[in-house]
Amino acid sequence: MRFISTRAKSGETFSASEAILKGLAPDGGLFIPESIPSIPETFTLTKGAWYAMYQSLIPYFRGDELEADLEEICRNAFSFPVPFHSDNGRDTLELYFGPTAAFKDFGARFLAYSMEKLLEKRNEEITILVATSGDTGGAVASAFHGRSHLSVKVLFPKGRVAKRQRMQLTGWDGNVSSYEVEGTFDDCQKMVKEAFMDSALSGLSSANSINLGRLLPQMAYYVYASSIYKLKYGEEAVFVIPSGNVGNATGAYWAKAMGAPIKRIVLAANANKPITDYLETGEYRPRASVMTLANAMDVGAPSNIERLFAMFPSAESFRANVSAYSVSDEEIRRTIKEVYDESGYVICPHTACGERVRKDYVEEPFSVVVSTAHPAKFSDIVEPLIGREIAIPKTLYEIMQKPSSAKEIAPDYHLLFD
Ligand SMILES: *Cc1c(COP(=O)(O)O)cnc(C)c1O
């Protein structure tokens, strides 16, 4: 199996491992499989979620240097449940049982274990730099903590991340260091870019959501979940996916192309709507983001859109395969309250975008809303709406109990390497 760039200028091909270590293709494009493989005949649901996910990943690593390690990587990375909240076919897929209680744990952990194996083989060391304004940094820090041959530097803007998010960024020791930068998120990103451009520094890498190693696991849980759903109801589900950078949704499109039993895929956006506008006008215009209650989806220029355009190049084919709807903050609040009043089920603001879209636009009786984060991560928004406290998941609680350690620094990247 070989991978190419979405820009495919050179015609050069890469192995999965090369793509994982490089992050971005040399021509600036994103890595995609040369052609999407089928689900292998050995695929089975009888050995649990992680094993089914492993099976669906096998074709992408055929002939790769990680082929023999893939089973162990999957067993370690996907070490938590992937359950449905069942509701007569209108179910919710809860992707938030990883250590930082959001779906990004799947990708970050798979990437960390894969990189560790590759670096062990090469006997090399890498430092991962992450600038974060919230969730991504926590998932990456947690995933890479304790992995050998790897260290992580997390940069976040002082006074601009929520208290609980800050705890997830600073509760680490060992190979993870946190830097509280006297500046904005843009300053943090600029420091990372400058460090990458400094030729005196070597062995730096990133763990961006565009990395193939973060995307492939998101394909894998859709193959698993859609197959479980089909087994349970005998029907193919419509998947409604809360989306920002559309990495999660791209995983679902790859799963469907592999033959997973998915009827269709619907994107739920917040007030940031470059994709819904594209569907309406046929003209794609990236833009600045606006702030919403579903802040992990505050994206005006989705980084994974190139991968969707590679699958559906014309406006016509895009429209035939992609549906997307935008949800306002007012609707997010209303939906969280409505779902709680109807059934006692508590959802986060991102999941609420998905639920609103299902209620208003999905007519099919068999559907799955993808729940991207545990509602306790957004207690300041959710608790006043439902009028009660939400229990914090144990893993999140454990991270929050750890002593916080962050170095306060001026926005100068040299200070990261003192
Ligand atoms: C990252 C994130 C999203 C958006 O996922 P994309 O892959 O960027 O579309 C949605 N919800 C939560 C909670 C997230 O952390």
Shape: globular
Radius of gyration: 20 Å
User: Within the largest sheet, what's the order of strands?
Assistant: 3-4-12-9-10-11
* Count of beta strands: 13
Helix tally? 16
CATH architecture of the domain at 77-103 and 213-393: 3-Layer(aba) Sandwich
Structural class: alpha/beta
Can you tell me the CATH class of the domain at 77-103 and 213-393? Alpha Beta
Report the average pLDDT across residues. Answer: 95
Main sheet makeup: 6 strands, mixed
H/E series: EHEHHEEHEHEHEHEHEHEHHHEHHEHHE
Helical content class: 40-55%
Low-confidence stretches: none
Tell me the span between the first and last alpha carbons: 42 Å
Beta-strand proportion: 5-15%
Q: What fold name stands as the CATH topology of the domain at 77-103 and 213-393?
A: Rossmann fold
Keywords:
418 residues, alpha/beta, Rossmann fold, 5-stranded parallel sheet, globular, binds pyridoxal-5'-phosphate
Outline the structure in words.
This protein has 418 residues and is α/β, with parallel strands linked by helices. The chain has a domain at 77-103 and 213-393: Rossmann fold, CATH 3.40.50.1100. It contains 16 helices and 13 strands. The chain has helices at 16-22, 49-57, 70-77, 104-122, 135-144, 163-170, 185-197, 212-233, 247-257, 274-281, 305-311, 315-321, 329-343, 349-361, 379-386, 394-401, and strands spanning 3-5, 31-33, 84-85, 90-94, 126-131, 150-157, 176-181, 204-205, 237-242, 262-269, 323-326, 367-371, 407-409. The strands form three sheets. The protein has a six-stranded mixed sheet. A five-stranded parallel sheet has the order 8-5-6-7-13, sandwiched between helices. Helix 9 (247-257) links the parallel strand 9 (237-242) and strand 10 (262-269). Helix 2 (49-57) crosses helix 8 (212-233) and helix 13 crosses helix 14 (349-361). The radius of gyration is 20 Å and the shape is globular. The model has no long low-confidence stretch (mean pLDDT 95). Pyridoxal-5'-phosphate binds at residues 102, 104, 135, 242-249, 296-297, 350, 372-373.
